[in-house]
Write a structure and sequence with these properties.
By secondary structure, this protein is an alpha+beta fold. It has one domain: Cathepsin B, Chain A, CATH 3.90.70. 24% of the residues lie in helices and 39% in strands. It is built from 3 helices and 6 strands. It has a 6-stranded antiparallel sheet with strand order 1-6-2-3-4-5. The radius of gyration is 14 Å and the shape is globular. It starts with 6 loop residues before the first strand and ends with a helix. The relative contact order is 0.26. Pfam families: Peptidase_C39 (PF03412).
């Protein structure tokens, strides 16, 4: 069981699939499954496949194409999908990481998440 009191921040980002592939931690992805809004955990990803862990769908490995058809829900040509990242309490928030400039915040978030593991 996850105790959410150990977490400090829940932060949403719009990202590209290429950026998603660089992350080294599981994230929650917003998808459309059979025309319904749904959230699922991305537990692994590479150039060809996306591994999801989902209470409704179970443990599944999807082709990148299958995943993209469900995940790319934004009209933005660059940042096509949405993710939710859960950061631990000990993560410092006194930097510009939580900036109001979404491009700066997204870049910094990706660098931070890619460095953790």
């Amino acid at each position: 069981m996850i105790y959410f009191s150990i977490f400090k921040k829940f932060k949403g980002y719009a990202v590209s699939l290429e950026t998603l592939e660089k992350l080294k931690i599981p994230v929650i992805a917003y998808i459309k499954h059979r025309k319904n809004d749904h959230f699922t955990v991305i537990s692994g990803i590479n150039n060809n496949f996306v591994r999801i862990s989902d209470p409704s769908l179970g443990q599944r490995t999807l082709s990148t194409y299958q995943f993209k058809t469900m995940w790319e829900t934004r009209a933005d040509d660059r940042l096509k999908g949405k993710i939710l990242v859960i950061l631990p309490k000990d993560q410092s928030s006194n930097s510009t990481f939580f900036s109001k400039d979404i491009r700066l915040a997204t870049t910094q978030a990706i660098k931070l998440l890619a460095s953790q593991r």
